[in-house]
Amino acid sequence: LSILLSVIAAFGALAQTPKVSVAGIRVIGGGLGANGSEIHAFGEQHPGTAVGLAIEVPEGNAIIDIDNHGSRLDTLTDNKGRSLLEEGRFGPFPKISEDKSAAMVEVEARGRPSAGASSITLKGNVALTMASGSKPTRIANMRLEEGRTMKVGDTTITVKTVKAGDDSTELTFALPRSFMNSIHAVRFFDSKGAAIESSRSGSGYMNEAAEVQYDVKSKVKTVAVEFDVWQNIREVKVPFNLTAGLAIGGESTSAAAPATQPARASTPARTAPSIPPGPDDGAASIDAVLSQMQSAGPAGKGKEFLAVIYPDDRGTFGQGLAMGLTFSVLANMNDQKATEKAQKEIDALFKKYKVKTPLNKEPSVIFKDTDLPAFVSEGLIYLKNHAPKGQSGADVLPIPKGKAEGVKMDGDSATASVGGKDIKFARINNKWFIRLTE
User: Fold this and answer.
1) Gap between the Cα atoms of 414 and 22, Å rounded
2) Average pLDDT of the chain, as a whole number
3) Residue 40 CB contacts under 8 Å (≥ 6 apart), including other chains
4) Taking the alpha carbons of 94, 96, 97, 101 in that order, is the dihedral positive or negative?
5) Which tens digit of pLDDT belongs to each residue from 17-67?
6) Which residues contact 361 (CB under 8 A, 6 or more apart)?
7) What is the pTM assigned to this prediction?
8) pLDDT confidence band for 333 (50 / 70 / 90)
């Protein structure tokens, strides 16, 4: 994912990705008392290491659920190389903020860092159910009586309890857990359509049966209830690669490299690709590389476009393009029909070219059976033809804009500023290529 986001940042693609960072670290040593297990620090029952992961989604999106069973912890090591992964798992009961913009989940393992270790690194992915955009449904003339039911789409909601207070009414709704998680807001209105002050006071669930409580600042018996429900619900797996020490706040390398990572000496970019270029690949100069991308991209000429990308990086570009296509549906998040139509078109495009999901796999896996130049051709044309209002098709394409400025040469490697962004280039057999990865 760090490679993908570097591509997206460098080329101005459309994707917006959830951010994962370290919110806390807990290391529990051996116990005391009977059998060394009677007393443990902080009331924990077992020694081991736990890391709290904070998850934040871009504005306009929501975290509906976290699947701790579908999430995966692949690596947990200290900076001395010891694996801490024994009995590694995602802990139960992740927490989601009321506005659903953020969540917290813990990963746990029995291993403990070596003596003198200063940081830990963990890799894996978090399985989220996300949504974007919301749609209100109002039920008029709802009598606040126990046992009354109402329908929102295909979901039945039951008024379980009604308790009248001095100046307010406490309500409990019984509803499916999946629907409770998809609620953006619930609003109440009187017979004249005026909003009634209200607040969510609690919730709970057992398996799929859930309850949610509201404090409604009114004693009226009949109200209109509006359920504002999140739309475009989808399951995603968000990779993380985090390093953090006692300073906390380590961020996934999908964003910025955490300050806790040790500095590494820079090394020259490798210019010998594992995939040899074709006889017609590359361009005579850096300016020629940019010119070919800027002409071939809008024209949907995927083969010519990929020909000036470093051979080993072409799959990575395809991966970034696929991610940009996936997130392009967010441009329609306030129009459910448009969102559904766009999603069907993207799904059909992926099916046509046999693109394998999830997109956090290696490009060689994602595009194993794909005609990559053809996919890139159609993907670029799709983005161009579905540019948001007020933007031209060329503006939204993941193509560097402008000419190379401040070119710095270092043998067969070069860097240049293109449209205010630093981009790397490599020369193979006297032909130049743009670099997307180290």
Assistant:
1) 35
2) 84
3) 28, 31, 32, 46, 47
4) positive
5) 788 999 999 888 877 777 666 677 776 667 889 999 999 988 778 898 899
6) none
7) 0.50
8) low
Q: Is the pLDDT of residue 332 over 70?
A: no
What gap in Å lies between CA 269 and CA 67, rounded to an integer? 39
Tell me if 16 sits within 8 A of 330, measured CB to CB: yes
At position 111, the amino acid (one-letter code) is G
In whole angstroms, give the CA distance from residue 247 to residue 23: 10
3-state secondary structure 334-383: CCHHHHHHHHHHHHHHHHHCCCCCCCCCCHHHHCCCCCHHHHHHHHHHHH
Closest Cα partner for 398 from 390, 408, 387? Answer: 387
Nearest to 57 by CA among 96, 18, 20, 95: 18
One-letter-per-residue 3-state SS of the chain: CHHHHHHHHHHCCCCCCCEEEEEEEEEECCCECHHHCCECHHHCCCCEEEEEEEEECCCCEEEEEEEEEEEEEEEEEECCCCECCCCCEECCCCEECCCCCEEEEEEEECCCCCCCCCEEEEEEEEEEEEEECEEEEEEEEEECCCCCEEEECCEEEEEEEEEECCCCEEEEEEEEHHHHHCEEEEEEECCCCCEECEEEEEEEEECCEEEEEEEECCCCCEEEEEEEEECCCEEEEEEEEEEEECCCCCECCCCCCCCCCCCCCCCCCCCCCCCCCCCCCCECCHHHHHHHHHHHCCCCCHHHHHHCECHHHHHHHHHHHHHHHHHHHHHHCCCHHHHHHHHHHHHHHHHHCCCCCCCCCCHHHHCCCCCHHHHHHHHHHHHHHCCCCCCCHHHHCCCCCCCEEEEEEECCEEEEEECCEEEEEEEECCEEEEECCC
Reading the block at residue 233, the tokens are 């619900």
**For a pLDDT cut of 90, what percent of the chain falls above it?**
46
Pairing of strands 421-428, 48-56: unpaired
Can you read off the two tokens belonging to residue 350? 């992926």
Residue from 135, 155, 139, 159 nearest 147 by CA: 159
